[in-house]
Amino acid sequence: MTDSSKMAITAIGDSNLESSIASSLTRLGWNVRFRALSFADLEDHLENLENIETVLFYSPDIKGFGRLPSEMRAIDVSSHPESDYVLAELIESREESVGTNIFKAIKGIPILGVGSFGRYSGASTIALNLAQESAIKGMRTLLIDSHYRNPFAADHFALYGLNRRVVELSENFSIIEATNLAEISSLELSVDSFDFIVVECGDIYQPAESINGRRSADSGFSWIAHNADELLVVVCENTFQSRTSGNPFALLESVAMKPSLSYICNKSSQINRASKQRLAHQIEGATRRPVALFPVDTRGLSAALRERSTLANAAAKSPLRREIIALCDSRSWWGS
What we know:
Blueprint: E1 7-11, H1 15-27, E2 31-36, H2 39-47, E3 55-58, E4 73-76, H3 84-94, E5 111-116, H4 123-136, E6 141-145, H5 153-157, E7 167-170, E8 173-177, H6 181-185, E9 196-203, H7 207-210, H8 219-227, E10 230-236, H9 237-241, H10 248-253, E11 260-268, H11 273-287, E12 291-295, H12 298-306, H13 311-314, H14 319-329
Parallel strand pairs: 1-2, 1-3, 3-4, 5-9, 5-10, 6-8, 6-9, 10-11, 11-12
Antiparallel strand pairs: 7-8
Helix pairs in contact: 4-14
């Protein structure tokens, strides 16, 4: 594939749709070289265009829409593709010679994203042990560590080269570090050997901007937002109880994403049923979604850290492990 096959021009009247398409094309590896504001702008640009391999992404609502040049490779996006994956499928249905930076073998494979609000929430621990429990149940599970700022898996398991290859940790359980879109997309040929994929992206910061994936640090969240079936957001109890400016829950809820949203209140200090119910009602009032409460489990996590393993192997009777299994049991992706 040559660079010329990845050149794009947009001519779309709806500014929101045009912005969405341009951002999506960039994430898919395209170079958007011109964004026409009207059909006249497009015609003027095409008169001086030397690279005839450039692909036009258009919609008939562009001001002054007229006859497209017969030699122009053009794709109508007026159907409003809802995600990178849908746009990639549309492109490949029209342009068989053009590839896109997105999974092709991922259809039918459940994908769970795990992120957090703030550091030290325990999202990496939850993702790791959730993936382990899926493997124990018999699901061929791939855990993708896409935490750009602080990848956890290589250090936890003392593995070298985890960013270059998929490593099988145990039966049905494999892991890889992939912290940018190119690395995630490079897994395209191997994901069809798995039944379940867990992607941990770390801290979700300014989701409305992060979803575009323009910064490397946002790649994991951006990919999850366009491809996952569910996004689990892990937050410590004090974050739920605080009233900081910029309400992260409202900011995340306002972003249009493919996955459904769920929340976990991790490291909960509430020990009796009444206090747990009060906290759950408080959190659900803020998020308007059911929330799972996960307990503090210093003993179990210390054992897992010491043995460089998971709760299932190092602390089988861990209360945190029990809650993780209960959460999995409540989800359709957990299998029959």
